[in-house]
Amino acid sequence: MKKDMEMGELVSIIVPVYCAAPYIAETIKMVRGQTYHHWELILVDDASSDNSVQIIQEIMDKEVADKRLHLIRKDRNEGAAKARNTGIAEAQGRYIAFLDADDIWHPDKLEKEIAFMEEKHAGFAFTAYEFGDENARGTGKIVKVPEQLTYRQALSRTVIFTTTVMFDTTVIPKELIWMPTVESEDTATWWKILRAGYTAYGYQESLAIYRRPAKSLSSNKFVAMKRIWHLYRREEKLSLLSSAICFCLWAVRATLRRI
Hints:
The protein has ten helices and ten strands. By secondary structure, it is an alpha/beta fold. Strands 1, 2, 3, 4, 5, 6, 7, 8, 9 and 10 form a ten-stranded mixed sheet that branches. Helix 9 packs antiparallel against helix 10 (about 240-259).
C-alpha cells in the first residue's frame, strides 16, 4: 500500500483498437513515455482485419518485463462502445482514461489531469485540445473548454473530447461510465453521467491532439448533425422545441470551434 501511495493511484487507460496498424505502436510508445508511471494500458482489439494484434503482441513480447500492457482480443467486431466497455470491465485502476489509437497525448497529460482532479475533488474531468492534421501535427487551433459543465450546459455543446476524458471511480461508479450502443456513444455517455447529477470539470491547458484526416469534412459534419439530433430526440427524449433550441446552439458552437 505504501508503495502504491508513493507511485500514485493506478490509472486504467482504455484504447479500442480496430485496424489501427499505422498508429498503434506510436500509441503504446506515447503512453509508456508519460511522466506519470502508475498506469495499465488496456488495448481492446475489436476483431481487426489488419496486423494490429501482431504489432501489439510483438511489442509486448519485446517489453515482457512491462506488466502494464494488456491485450484483449474480441472474436467479432462490435464497435468502439462495446470495446471500451470490455476495457472498463477489466480495469483495475481508481482512474479510468480513454484514448483513441490515432490521437496524441502530451507527455504530462496524466500527471497534470490527475493533479487537477485532486485539486477540484472532481469525479469527471476533460481538457482543452488541439486540432491536428492527418499526421497528428498540431495546427495551432486550440479548442478551449469551460471550467465546469452541467447537464443542461452540455446539451448545447459537444466540447468534451473522448481522448481527454478521465473519471475517478471512487466518485462515479463504473456502471455509469459504460457506454450505450448508440451513434455518438461518447456524447451520450457524458450526458448520462451529467444527468445523474455530476459536474464535469474542464482543464484549460491543451493536453491532446485530435487527428483529423483531410478527407470528407463536409460529409462528416452532416453525419454529426444527424447523430446529435437523434440523441436529443431518442436518448434524452427532449421535446421538439427543446431539441431545436439545443441543436441550433450546438451547431453555432461546433462551427465556431472549427474556425
